[in-house]
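Posting this for the archive.
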Amino acid sequence: MTTRRTEYLTGGEAAAGARPDPGFLVPGGVVGDGRYRLTAQFGVDGRTNAHLWRAQDGQLRRDVALTLLVGDPGDAQACAAARRTLERAAHAAALTHPGKARVLDVLGQGSGIGAGEGLIGIIVADWTPGTDLVDLVAERPLPAEVAARLLGPLASASELAHHTGLVLGVDHPQRIRVTTDGALRLSFPGPSAEATLQDDVRGLGAVLYLLLTNRWPLPGGPAGVLSAPVNPDGSVVAPRALFPHIPHELSAAALRCLSGDAMGGIQTSAGLIRVLDRFKAFEEETQQFQAITDDYDDDGTVWTTRRPSNDRAQRRKLAIGVTALAVATVGVLAWVGMQLISFFGDTAPGVGGPTVVATAPGGGSGGPPPPQAGDPIQSAGVRVFNLPGKGTPDNAKRANRAVDGDQKTAWKTDIYKEQFPSLKPGVGIMASFAEPVMFAEVVVDSPSDGTVIEIRTAPSDRPGSLDETKVIGKSEPLKAGQTKIQLAKSEPTQHLLIWITTLGEGNVSELTEIAFVRAR
C-alpha cells in the first residue's frame, strides 16, 4: 500500500510534539493488514498520539472501536511506550465490567500491523453505541444528580481494575462515551505507559468536573472544550464557584480527586464511589417527599347569583379596608428593610438571637492578638466527623443543614444516655474549603444551652485521631442564640472541625447554622 503523510498537526498533537497523521487515516481507509475499515474518527489523545476511530471488522462484519497508536517504527522510545500500552490493554482484556468496553485484540509491529502503515500499535475493543461524552456537555453542564448517576459505573470499573493491579486509563474525555442506558463507559481503552492508579482517580475527578461545569481541568484537553479557570496559586477553581447551584459534596469531591495524594485528597476510586453513593442516597430520600396537591376542582366556570352591588356604603368599607391593608404592607416592608440592614451590617452571616463573643485562646493574656475578621467564606463541603472506632456518625445525611443558610433546618447529634466523654470524646462537623484559608471567627447559632464547642484545624477531612488536629478556638457553654467564637492566629487550612466536647441539655446538641469568617 502506498501511503503519504500530511503536513499539519492538530492542536493536541502539536502540544505533545506528535508526528503528522498518516495520510490513510481517513474514512474508508483500512488498517491492520486490511482487516479494519475506518468509518469515523472520534478524537485524538495528543499526549500519546492515540487516534480514536470507529471501524468495521471485515472478517466478523461488526463495528469495533480502534485506538491507533501513531508513530515511527524506528523511534525506539515511542515503540517501547506503545508496547507498554499494548501490554496493559491485553491484561485488561480479562476485566469485564459495564463501565469498560471489552478488549478484543491488540496488534503490534509484525503481529497484525502491515509495513508502511505508520502505526506502532492497535487496540481493538467492542464498539459502544451511544453518545460522545464531549458532545453530551457541549452546550451546558449536567444537573448534579445526573452527573453522579452517569459517573458511578465508570468509577466502579476503575475500582475493579485497581483491585487487580490494573490501570484503566480514564484521564481523557474523548476515550469515554455515554451508553444508551445512561452510563459512562471507557470505550477506547489504552492507558499510557506512565499512567498510575492515582491518574485514574484524578481522571475520574476531571470527568466529574466536566459533567458539572462543561470545562476540562487537566492539561491536554480536546479541542473545542473549555479549560477550567485557575486560582492565583495555580489550583483549579471549585465547580461551585462557577455555578453556585452545584452541591457542596460533588464540588469538593471533584477537587479532592484532582488534588491526588495532597492533603485531604481522594486517593482511591472507592473513596469517590462512597461520595457518589451518599449523594445519590440523599437525593433519593429528598425525592420521597410528596408534593401537596389541591383537591379543589376548578373547571373554569364562573358562578354568580346576582348582579354586583352598587351600594355606596359597601364601596366606602372596601376603600377603608384597602387603605388599612396598604398601611400594614408598608409596615411589613419597613420591618423587612430593618432586618436586611441588620443582616448586611454584620461582618458575619447573620443568624437570630443574642450574640455572645468567645475570646480567642490567649487573646486576653498578653499573647498575640487574634486575627481581624474579614469576609464570610462558604465551605466547599461538610460531613459529620466521628473518631475512628467510636461508633457511627450522628445524622450523617443531614450535615449540610448546618451550613445551608436556612434557619428552619438544623443538624442534631444523637441523644446520648451519658454526657461526653463517657461514651466517646465528642462529635462534630468537618468543613472543607476549596483552598487553604486563615480564619478569624466561626459563628455558631444553636438553641442548645450548655453545649461546648472547640474549633480545630485538621490536615484532612478524616484525621485518625484528635492528636492530628489543633485547637484554635473554644466556646464557653453556649446560650441559646448566636455565639461568635474568635480564633487564635494559625496557619491557613482547608479543613476546620467544629468539635462538640460537651452536649447540651438532655445530652443532645443542635446546630442551626455555622458561618465561617476569614482573616483580613
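The longest strand covers residues 427-437. Residues 1-21, 288-306, 341-353 have pLDDT under 50 and may be disordered.
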